Amino acid sequence: MTDSPVNTFLKENIRFEKNSETAVYIQIAQQIINAIQRGYLARGTALPGTRSFSRLLQVHRNTVVAIYDELASQGWVEIIPNKGTFILVPEQKTVTIKATHQHASPVNDYAPKTGFPFQSSFHLASTEEVSTTKYNINDGQPDLRLHPVHQFSKWYSASMKRKSLLSKWNQTTTSTHSNFETQLSNYLNITRGFHIQPCNIMNTRSTEMSLYIVSQLLIRPDDVILVGNLSHYAANMIFQQAGAIIKTIPVDEKGLDIDYISKHFTKGSIRCIYVCSNRHYPTTRTLSAERRLKLLELAKNHQFAIIEDDFDYDFQFEGSAMLPMASSDINGMVIYLGKLGQSLFPSFQTGFVVAPQNLITEAKNYLQMLDRQGDLIQEQMLSELIHEGEIYRLLKKNIMVYKQRRDLLCKCLNTYFGKAIQWKKPNGGLAVWLEFEPKISLVQLTEEARKEDLFLPKTILYQDKDICSIRFGFGHLNEEEIEIAVLKLRTAYNRITNVLR
């Protein structure tokens, strides 16, 4: 019996630590359960007697009794008097298994690496950074504290109770457009000057998902994509992952230099151009009306697509936001990307694509693979909020708050920095473009700011031989936090400039 396969297996694979906080009998029981789950110990297998098992593992017989009692209580073994202890497979598949932190044996080890090769991607390396500082600056994100939690709790609960949801989840055809697509297309027609139907729109989880799907439709390896010489890092990651060759064009006070494209690129050499509709990312410069017309004409003549990302349309403080190029595109050259509900919790926001029907139809085929189920409760609630005008009211309320924050930021920058930095007050958006003159090391500035409990992520820093700038996002900071952040930034700046002198 001592040389039986079961005994050999248990002797070679059971490990425990007597000094562990977890009792020895629990450690051993967990490893036996793991072996049963993995099929190493089959149903009906006889475990050694308590005396044999105690000698096998060199533990007290009472410990083995406790092990078997623990396994029996969870339904993993059956103890038959005068016959022995036998492996069972519990009917309840969700038996609670307490985690253990003792030395892992081959029975419950999980391989740290794959045993096969796969293709990794440099382009998709995460840009996320972790910081424990109290204050931080981002690239212009909304303040989630402004989300009306109590109101949304009621609206969400009401949406979940709609009987129509069950029929939507159980439907087997998609021959008609959803109520949400109808409401969203109506909303965009009113707010953005579109003349679209539900067949011209596709909603997604985010702008990034929208752009990823579009890139799969448009881009083939070595296709040329044009972006501004400073552009959105997330969009560039998506284009590069699709195999595109990214080429940059100059950006000045009037936005992208369209004449540069005419001079340096021939017909058929460009696959598409990525444009930020209202404010160029990251500089906040607005593409002029004249250049918009030139770009539409150039796209028609050169036969390339325009991806128009209108990521901050909702945040317009002075005047009216410029209508999207897509609203006046009669030749089907523009693919418009947007987001609804930016003042809400991310789980209530939705991205969308507006384009000619043939592209939307194909894009939805991709979406079915990525997100077949979607979020029907979210769509139901957003449909009602659009229909009842709540989305518009929430937006107007928050715009007033963000405008005050922008004005305070500009006042603080003037007070604490004066002529040490240059900036222009943007007419919208949740970020200000700061240019340091004379130039400093932004890496050093980040290090000094961290000492002041202020975090500057690398994604807001822009520096080369010609540029020394920061995209200062203020939307997530209240007025008190804005003043503290600017003061801390100035303190860090002073340390660097003193060193330089």
Number of beta-strand segments: 18
- The gross shape turns out to be globular
Low-pLDDT sequence parts: 99-104
Helix content: 40-55%
| Beta-strand proportion | 5-15%
Distance between the termini: 83 Å
Number of helices, where a helix is a run of at least 4 consecutive DSSP H or I residues: 16
Q: Under CATH, the topology of the largest domain is which?
A: Aspartate Aminotransferase, domain 2
CATH superfamily of the largest domain: Type I PLP-dependent aspartate aminotransferase-like (Major domain)
Structural class: alpha/beta
Verbal overview:
- This protein is globular.
- Helix content is 41%, strand content 14%.
- It is α/β, with parallel strands linked by helices and 501 residues long.
- It has helices at 5-13, 24-37, 50-57, 61-73, 149-160, 164-170, 179-192, 207-218, 233-241, 258-264, 289-302, 357-371, 376-387, 390-416, 442-451, 479-500; strands at residues 46-47, 77-80, 84-87, 135-136, 201-204, 224-228, 245-249, 251-252, 255-256, 272-276, 305-309, 334-340, 350-354, 421-422, 431-436, 454-455, 461-463, 468-473.
- The chain is built from 16 helices and 18 strands.
- Residues 99-104 have low confidence and may be disordered.
- Helix 3 packs across helix 4.
- It folds into three domains: 5-87, Orthogonal Bundle (Arc Repressor Mutant, subunit A), CATH 1.10.10; 135-141 and 401-500, Aspartate Aminotransferase, domain 1 (Alpha-Beta Complex); 163-388, Aspartate Aminotransferase, domain 2 (3-Layer(aba) Sandwich), CATH 3.40.640.
- The protein has a seven-stranded mixed β-sheet with strand order 5-13-12-11-10-6-7, sandwiched between helices. The protein has a four-stranded antiparallel β-sheet with strand order 14-15-18-17, with helices on one face.
